[in-house]
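Worked Example 4.2. Consider the chain below.
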Amino acid sequence: MRTACPYCGVGCGVSAVPDGRRLKITGDPAHPANLGRLCSKGSALGSTVGLEDRLLHPAIGGRKTSWNDAISRIAGRFSETIARHGPDSVAFYVSGQLLTEDYYAANKLMKGFIGSGNIDTNSRLCMASAVVAHKLAFGADLVPGCYEDLDLADLVIFSGHNAAWTHPVLFRRMEAARARGQRHVVIDPRRTDTAEDADLHLALAPQTDVRLWNGLLADLIRRGAVDRAYVAAHVAGFAEVEAELAQADQSPAAVAADCGVAVADLERFFQMVAETPRTVSLFSMGANQSAQGVAKGSAILNVHLATGRIGRPGACPFSITGQPNAMGGRETGGMATTLAGHMDFDPVSRARLGRFWSAPRVAAGPGLKAVDMFDAVADGRIRAIWIMATNPVVSLPDSARVRAALEACPFVVVSDCMADTDTAAFAHIKLPALAWGEKDGTVTNSERGITRQRRLFEPPGEARADWRIVADVATAMGFGDAFGWRGSAQVFREWARLSAYENTDRMLNLGPLAGVTPEAYDALEPIQWPVTAAGGTARLFTDGRYQTPDGRARMIPVAARGPAEATSAGYPMSLNTGRVRDHWHTMTRTGLAPELCRHAPEPYVEMHPADAIALGVGEGALARVVTAQGEAIAIARLTDRQRPGSVFMPMHWTEAFAPSGRANPLVAPSVDPRSGQPEFKHTPARVRAYRETWRGFFLAREAWRAPAGLDLVWRRIPHAACQLHEFAGRGDAPERAALHKALTAKVPGDALRFEDPAAGVLREAWLEGERLGRVIFFTTSGALPPRDWLAELFAADLLTAADRMALLIGRQPGHAVETGPTVCACRGVRAARIETAIAEGCDSLDAVGEATGAGANCGSCRPEIARMLAAARGATRHAA
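Applying the procedure from the previous section yields the following structure tokens:
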């Protein structure tokens, strides 16, 4: 079965062969986005489709109920709240994990029939600034480029985009283009895997992107590299931008000083751009997630409009989306600031939408954006909220406030496929939604490509499609005539008809698909909008016409300014948050795949060695990161790839995996004033050593959470046959005794035990018949043994005598234990194995791949292997 991957905005095609509830996963070689390649996450999809931890039945107050009772309760409470407090007293918070059909249904109910703009999406956290920049420049949220441009470009600029980790399949395409001479420039405070092998890395100071891009445009003007003919024919606002640039010293020396980069590097960057007509600028979260994200996007678009590098093969500004259907949500009006079909809240568009839907009360204006929405929940303006397929208690900034808001909210509905997310804990009603592999509909990727996501399994339990759940609630609220769809194909056809309805000037148009039959819908091949009678459209603006009243693009003057919150003596460092390579959002899916938990197994804080020395923080020790919003404790990773004065934390971990390691409770709720997108890339912070007095770990077949009342730092790391729980504390023997009591409660049988009270050492192992049941190791001094051999024993049906004897040692005597991080998640290859292959003569990426399998699948580990090769060559030269 051909379907689409549910992770990032690349929108890869997947070939899946079901076998019961299991899947064989490969890339779809016929899909234009990935041509058969998959990243580590896509390759591991088969490990995430089990029914463990699934929400399979509706629940009210934590107790199983019927769909009729749940729907009736939701419709009644929403209708009552609207009647008492008005339509703006309710809200939907939705997700880029929804299919386009789901998004369309939710938007139609809220904006067309409830009559409020209060539906927003977690795409607000990743794409909202790009949306506003597109609308300002092009007249609508239009991404002009396509993936073929990444093959054809002679220069690719990655602006706040670690493509090697976040979009590895696209990065492999560009890696192939480098073989013919394509050059890469990376603009990022961190030396990421994308930056590691780039032709030029500009490690700019936090929040100086606008200064850099303005300086570039000023330099292009000085060099005469502006396409004056294109500007005269197709662009407005150039003179105003030029006047804004004149307000500051745009000399290379001044720009370099403000951005914290070397003048020579900056001048090289300017020259590379000036001499390369085929330039693609990829911008993503590093640019968007900022209180000045719109300004950053506009500054990038200004450069391309001034040089005419848009609408041409190999030349475009390209906003790369984070989620699989962020684009589909933007198309159908899933954001609070737009209506469906790229329409705004002007009277003509509202009337048009009202006629098409026969809607009684189309929303009069935009609703509340994500951060404002949860502020309104907190202060009581919103009294009922429905959260669909997302986990805002983890993903929003200053997330402790989100927790408090939902805890106080009179009525919270959560529809999700997972039973126990951090957000679901606050739900009065939980609704079981379909997961990937069960859903049936469409998604739109970063190049405007629509792909079918097809059902592989029958719906489990009582789970339903999100669009159907919305339609059921709408019907119970009295709107059934407008929501009587019998299948996703009907929803899609209605959406396609709307996109073409009275459409004389909007580029978003799926008109030729409006009459698609159920059979044709099932067989729909990937296609890019706008859809014409001749098929899809690869590039926009090829004729120089834009979706503005006069057909001209707009250059927008933007001024460079400092961060929304400055560092201080109390918070002298800049905290930057983001993703790791093998995890996705809040781990509700990737946390089910043990192979994806090996490369970055637990929360960490990355910092420069010079900062760490001054703060007394050691490599691998626990560090406390504190901001004005909260604090977190994570493993310290010391690296010169991190800019001095800045620290980085990944955002994925939750209460179920590492309650002390959650990053977003630390993030300040500063937002871009126009887009409402939060500032995730700069929060003033301080770091200190945690200074634990004891450490330990616990292995068991089941997941476990520390009970309330124990002051512990703990993390859970899934393995193939067990769950590893790491612990640390700053208490004394009573604290360890309390934890031991909690770990061993109701455990049958006797334990193998070793204890040395003087050294603070305790080691225990329980057997369940001939199998290993659980293991506990504590110490107040000295090292703990590697966990890997013990974790592997849980997969054995029968322990040998030698295994039993070695249990309390933690490793087999006389046997080498392969430890260290997993570099290649696809093939499970550890760093030690790669280092051995290099030492034995493998001197290239291909040679390492042939010897070990590492880097031979998705390639997202290839930059890391390249670093290992370079380090080995450097060591050889040094020895010589």
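The CA atoms of residues 5 and 444 lie 11 Å apart. The first strand starts at residue 2 and ends at 4. Compare this with Example 4.1 before moving on.
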